[in-house]
Amino acid sequence: MLQISEILCQNVNYKVQSKLLLEEINSTFNSGEISVILGKNGAGKSTWLSLLSKELTPSSGQIFLQDTELDSCSFAELAMQRAVLPQLQNMVFSLKVQQLVKLGAEVQQQPSNANLITQATMQVCDIEHLAERDVVTLSGGEQKRVQLARVLAQIWPLEPLQANQTKPFSGKWLFLDEWTSSLDLHHQQLLSSCFKRWAQQGLGVVMVLHDLNLTSQLADKVKILKAGKLVSEGSTEEVLTPENILHTLDLKTLAVDIYGIKQPMILPVLEYE
Ligand SMILES: Nc1ncnc2c1ncn2[C@@H]1O[C@H](COP(=O)(O)OP(=O)(O)OP(=O)(O)O)[C@@H](O)[C@H]1O
Q: What is the pTM of this model?
């Protein structure tokens, strides 16, 4: 029985010409949780994220978003329910930062709230000081935070977070493809705490990462793809063991317990003569 708060993938295949990029994917994502998808380059992570957000359609199989088959959701409905940060997004046109973020807020079709939402997500992403800058002149990390603010604005709760609502993000999903790339560690830490908090407030977060230690600190569930197949999934404790990491990611690691840190540190073992 499908829970209302889930995304469900049933026998999902995705093919380009005769090449099978994803094979028989059966899996569930829960709202209120952070799910991390891991895998080597080319394993199919971005392809899976694109299927979850309906940017691509499965060649066979079905994806359900909450109680509805994704195929039957309109893009206008989806735009207010889920937001997607793609892996690469080069800005090619001139626009002020504030205007770009506001484009995200305007998806919500509540013009009176657009300025407030824009302000809120710019604050969260620490880009208020860049408001009047042209996006094409920003550094890589600054652009990433601006794009994140725009994406967040798309699903930002209309009711202020301090209102008596414990789950203001309920029914909303955030898909992030390698959001940490080009972000400094300060902003990674800042935003990681936000994702954790928003997940507790009902947001479903699905992110593609390569950083195993960030994964072990952030993830409620981990899913590992290998050559288009889902080869491992479960809690961080179940999935992120040196044996499983070697088997699924072809990576030798050591798990090191550090006093004061709940999860063991995962150290890649460098091999050289
Ligand atoms: N349109 C396409 N035609 C042919 N092959 C494709 C197409 N799109 C993706 N692929 C291939 O499918 C595989 C999966 O791509 P995908 O972008 O999902 O990988 P990924 O796991 O996100 O990798 P990375 O970690 O490098 O970002 C890759 O080998 C890629 O080259």
A: 0.94
